[in-house]
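Box 3.1 A note on notation
Throughout this textbook, protein chains are presented in two layers. The first layer is the amino acid sequence; the second is a token string describing backbone geometry. Keep the layers aligned when reading.
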Amino acid sequence: PEIRIDCPDEKKFNVIEKATAILREKYQVIDIDGARVVFDDGWGLVRASNTQPALVMRFEALSDSRLTEIRSIVEATVKRVQQTL
């Protein structure tokens, strides 16, 4: 499912840029239309919504436990960035 997090329009692209840089330090990141963090057994995506003042996240993994781990990594990074802006 798609997860939406409120984020003002004037901040959302900056949040994505900074989160991408942080995630790239440890993980493979594809930065087309947001940040897609690639793992051997799944992925996490965070991007700025084009229609709302929000960030959109999606996650996929081979197991529920790994899905929870991937989601936690991406969400914690985004939250940390949002707190600094």
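DSSP finds two helices and five strands in the chain. Strands lie at 3-6, 28-30, 35-39, 42-48, 54-61.
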